[in-house]
Structure formats: structure tokens, C-alpha cells
């Protein structure tokens, strides 16, 4: 099995689910044969996008990631195909509740990349559940005041998870999402870069209707509108992520 990446955020509505789906699409276009999305949010937005609302709303808990969290079945038994060749999902359901101390059993998973979409609450056990199994984590955030205020909560979570549960966990950085050409977003982005420097991705994901249209269609933007400016940005974010992880590996080996 390849890279396991978690996306975490303390605030909802930052484009985390959309980013998870879009990075999966970029990875597939970049040469990955199989990419698995794991939905750990009880809102199940990622699952609904990929499988359809009706299928998710009628899903039994034992057919979802709930069974993995309760150690009843390994992840490989519950994976479902999506409309995108090579894109798989381990779905959530509306009553998903990850027990404290649960472990993500990825037995039976054959994927080049696993992306975990977590709930927007760093105290939710589902977030640590994902981080313990991950090689790397990135945090999408809005360039707004509430986004900046959420940084300390994410940092505290990553510090505790890294020190106590997964010392090999790599923080890939902060990904600015839904950026608009307004003074507030420019100020907040400038502040983040001043305070956190290279930890902030150089590539910024803009606010664009195409991203909403793509997720409504259940497709990564790289597949929904492959020649769009949004698809180009997502491919750049994916490449920057790979570069960051490679640099972290080289630093650790030095």
C-alpha cells in the first residue's frame, strides 16, 4: 500500500472534502492506478458525492467505515467503486461514531494512495483515528480570521498525535482554499505566510464555481473539467504535496 494522507481542519466549510476528491483525481491523472478515499465524517458528504445520497442514506452501519472502527471487518472488505475508474471509497454513514482508541485496519487495501477526509473538529476521535494510520497530513484553511484562529487547535492536535501515537507523521503544510481577490483574503494569506513561512503551500486554491459543480457531479475537477484553470491548480497542489513529502523524507535521512 502507498501513501496514507489525512486532511484535517478545525473549521467546517473550508473545502476539505472537495480538496480530498480533487487530490485523488490529480493522483490518478499523475499515474496512480488506484486511489482510496476514506470518509470519516458523519455528514458523509464525500460518500454522497461519490455514491449518491440515496445509497448512503440507506446504508447499514456495518457496510461502512463504522465496521472498521469497531474492529468487525477490515477496510478491504468494505471498499466500493465509484464512477471514476481507479477511484474507490470506504464510505461513512449518517450515524457514524468512531470509538476512542479505535485503530484503522487497512488490511486488504491495495491502493497507491489513501486519502482520509476527517470531520471539522480536531477533538473528534475520528481525526486521531485517521492520523494514527497516516504517513502525512495537510490542513486546508480559508484565508479569513476564523481560519487563522483555528491554526493553534490543529497544531496542538498534530503535536499530541505525533508525539504520542504516530511519531513518523509528517505535516505537509497549510493549503489555502477558496481564495478570493479581496483585501481580507490577501491580508490573511500574507499573515499566514509571515507567521508560518514555508509551512504554507505556495499554490493557492481559488474560489471558483467549477469546484462546486464538479463535486455536485461526484467527480474530481481534474476529470469534470480537465482543461480548466481549477484543474490546473489542483494538479499543482498535488505536485507540491509530493515535493514537500520528498523533501521531508530527505531531511529525515540526512
Amino acid at each position: 500500500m502507498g501513501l496514507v494522507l489525512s486532511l484535517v481542519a478545525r473549521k467546517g466549510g473550508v473545502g476539505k472534502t472537495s480538496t480530498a476528491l480533487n487530490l485523488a483525481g490529480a493522483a490518478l491523472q499523475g499515474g496512480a492506478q488506484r486511489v482510496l478515499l476514506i470518509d470519516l465524517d458523519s455528514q458523509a458528504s464525500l460518500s454522497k458525492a461519490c455514491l449518491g445520497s440515496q445509497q448512503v442514506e440507506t446504508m447499514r452501519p456495518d457496510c461502512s467505515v463504522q465496521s472498521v472502527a469497531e474492529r468487525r471487518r477490515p477496510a478491504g472488505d468494505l471498499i466500493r467503486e465509484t464512477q471514476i475508474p481507479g477511484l474507490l471509497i470506504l464510505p461513512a454513514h449518517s450515524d457514524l461514531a468512531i470509538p476512542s482508541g479505535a485503530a484503522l485496519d487497512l488490511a486488504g487495501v491495495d491502493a497507491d494512495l489513501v486519502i482520509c477526509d476527517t470531520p471539522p473538529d480536531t477533538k473528534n476521535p475520528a481525526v486521531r483515528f485517521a492520523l494514527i494510520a497516516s504517513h502525512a497530513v495537510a490542513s486546508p484553511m480559508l484565508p479569513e480570521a476564523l481560519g487563522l484562529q483555528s491554526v493553534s487547535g490543529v497544531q496542538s492536535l498534530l503535536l499530541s498525535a505525533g508525539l504520542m501515537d504516530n511519531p513518523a507523521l509528517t505535516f505537509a503544510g497549510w493549503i489555502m482554499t477558496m481564495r478570493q481577490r479581496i483585501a481580507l483574503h490577501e491580508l490573511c494569506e500574507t499573515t499566514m505566510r509571515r507567521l508560518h513561512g514555508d509551512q504554507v503551500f505556495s499554490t493557492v486554491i481559488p474560489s471558483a464555481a467549477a469546484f462546486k459543480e464538479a463535486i455536485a457531479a461526484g467527480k474530481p475537477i481534474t476529470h469534470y473539467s480537465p482543461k480548466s484553470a481549477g484543474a490546473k491548480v489542483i494538479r499543482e497542489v498535488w505536485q507540491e504535496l509530493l515535493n514537500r513529502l520528498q523533501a521531508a523524507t530527505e531531511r529525515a535521512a540526512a
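The radius of gyration is 17 Å. Strands lie at 3-7, 35-39, 80-81, 87-90, 113-117, 136-141, 170-176.
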